[in-house]
Specification:
alpha/beta; 9 helices; globular
């Protein structure tokens, strides 16, 4: 689809905003939700990931099909690329083919704290189900473990808080420890993402539907 003809329907200010956000987007770190069942946790997690500028989220659905609360995401989910998987093993296989190392979240104090870790290659952060944490399959298949340090009496954070803290720490690491060309999108990825966002604009969606209706 040639989209240049659609650009006339959005303001230069809006296009500039889309372009700027896309230029600082990253796929160096990605996030995996394993069998989440609480719609609030999924939605809050997606909002945090989008807010810190990461593009991809992998959902291992199992018996818990993906659903979001739009009042919580505030539309954040529409800017993300969501990948659905039936099993953790299937998900990890797909991620490894793209060069990711797999790291699972665990509050165990013996595990390395995320902010002290180094990432010479892309990483996928895996978060387990709200009640039981990561599955045994995920633990066995993972390349490593990380934790978010806790200084109080509580033993663990709510999973959506853990996701937010992980995304924040990953963003700080990317901007301070990696070169831009390592963690930002390639020129091709940038153009593809920007164009997909342009086509999602309500006014353009309305025009596209009208064109499709009339052939």
């Amino acid at each position: 689809m040639k989209i240049n003809r659609y650009l006339q329907y959005i303001t230069p200010k809006r296009y500039q905003r889309l372009s700027h956000v896309a230029s600082r987007r990253s796929r160096y770190f990605t996030f995996v939700f394993e069998n989440f069942f609480d719609i609030h946790n999924i939605s809050a997690g997606l909002r945090s990931i989008e807010a810190f500028g990461f593009q991809d989220v992998h959902i291992v659905e199992g018996i818990n099909r993906l659903n979001v609360n739009k009042d919580i995401t505030r539309g954040a989910h529409q800017w993300l690329t969501l990948h659905r998987h039936e099993t953790s093993r299937e998900c990890f296989h797909a991620l490894r083919k793209k060069g990711y190392q797999i790291l699972v979240a665990d509050p165990d104090q013996d595990q390395p704290p995320l902010h002290e870790m180094e990432f010479s290659r892309p990483a996928a952060f895996v978060f387990g189900q709200e009640l039981y944490g990561i599955s045994e399959t995920a633990r066995k298949e993972a390349d490593g473990v990380f934790r978010i340090p806790i200084a109080g009496f509580v033993e663990s954070f709510n999973v959506s808080v853990t996701v937010a803290l992980t995304a924040y720490t990953a963003r700080i690491y990317a901007e301070s420890s990696l070169k831009d060309r390592q963690w930002t999108l390639s020129p091709v990825q940038y153009r593809e993402l920007l164009m997909s966002w342009v086509l999602k604009q309500p006014v353009i969606q309305k025009i596209i539907r009208k064109e499709e209706k009339h052939g």
